[in-house]
Amino acid sequence: MPAKIPPTQNVVRKAVFDILGDISGMDFLELFAGSGAVGFEAFSHGVKTVTLVEHDPHCVEVIQENLKLLGIPYSGTYSDPLIIIPADAFVAIKQLAKKNKKYDIVFLDPPFGYNLGKKALKALGAHDILHANCFLLVQVEKNEILPKEEGRFHLIREKNYGASHLAVYEGS
């Protein structure tokens, strides 16, 4: 994997799936997907669909290469079990709302240094793309301050992992 695409730390990825437990049959959205590692792992845990949103064309190529390596069928349509949206996360949220897509779980790991975690929470709350009782897992730089509540999302768990902070929100 190119050094340009920092993967989510294995310890954080393990924590994410330990926290979530059985996610089979659910719909999973990964914003700021990078290599798509978290989404691919969600797929291996039996989710119904995975949507990977990534703006960087190089990262999108890496995701497509990983699809081939893993043997996951991909036609590039919204009917696929794994969907790649090559777009800015905030634009993609609006597109998904227009297509009436709904998700049970959202994982987001925005680039560090831009304080995008809170902005992404607000965008998710402003668009109807989440089922009731959804979960948001937000990985940000340790010094980025996230709210305890944001709209219908309530912080239920948080922990630091090295330079990363993982916040888990439940939606009502």
Strand order of the largest sheet: 3-2-1-4-5-8-7-6
Count all strands and give the number.
8
Question: Which radius of gyration do the C-alpha atoms yield?
Answer: 15 Å
Mean pLDDT: 92
User: Approximately how much helix is present in the residues?
Assistant: 25-40%
Number of helical runs?
A: 5
Tell me the number of structural domains: 1
User: Which CATH top level class fits?
Assistant: Alpha Beta
Described by its quaternary structure, the protein is: single chain
> Beta-strand percentage?
25-35%
The CATH homologous superfamily name equals: Vaccinia Virus protein VP39
How would you characterize the largest beta sheet?
8 strands, mixed
Q: Would you give the CATH topology?
A: Rossmann fold
What overall geometry do the principal axes of the alpha carbons give?
Answer: globular
Describe the protein:
The protein is an alpha/beta fold and 172 residues long. It has a single domain, classed as Rossmann fold, CATH 3.40.50.150. It has helices spanning 10-20, 37-44, 57-70, 89-98, 117-126, and strands spanning 27-31, 49-53, 82-85, 103-108, 130-141, 149-150, 153-161, 164-171. It has an eight-stranded mixed sheet with strand order 3-2-1-4-5-8-7-6. The mean pLDDT is 92.
Keywords summarizing the entry:
single chain; alpha/beta; 8 strands; globular; 172 residues; eight-stranded mixed beta sheet; Rossmann fold
